[in-house]
Write a structure and sequence with these properties.
This protein has 87 residues and is an all-beta fold. The protein has a domain at 45-86: SH3 type barrels (Roll). The protein is built from no helices and five strands. The protein has strands at 46-49, 53-61, 65-69, 74-78, 84-86. It has a five-stranded antiparallel β-sheet with strand order 4-3-2-1-5, with no helix packed on it. A hairpin with a 4-residue loop joins strand 3 (65-69) and strand 4 (74-78).
């Protein structure tokens, strides 16, 4: 239907907001995955660090940090121990 000024007049379609489907890749559908457990170190464990090299654990501070002797220096490595692995 045309209006006198030449505009098209018509009925607007209703919104489909109430019938939205949930997409499988939606970030709002994600299930919560627990973080991996923090690796535990004990005294005298031999470790390898990506930056400092080979070392020996000489101190453990609960689950917060470990003190490692890398030969020429000692370093306190905090959690998470992403760059350090036990040998």
């Amino acid at each position: 239907m045309l209006a006198p000024n030449g505009r098209i007049l018509g009925k607007m379609k209703s919104s489909h907001a109430a019938t939205r489907r949930i997409l499988p890749g939606s970030p709002f559908n994600r299930t919560i995955v627990p973080p991996p457990p923090i690796e535990q170190y004990a005294l005298n464990d031999r470790v390898s660090h990506d930056k400092y090299g080979l070392g020996v654990v000489i101190g453990v501070e609960d689950e917060l940090a470990v003190l490692v002797d890398f030969g020429p220096e000692q370093r306190r490595i905090t959690t998470p121990f992403a760059k350090m692995t036990r040998l």
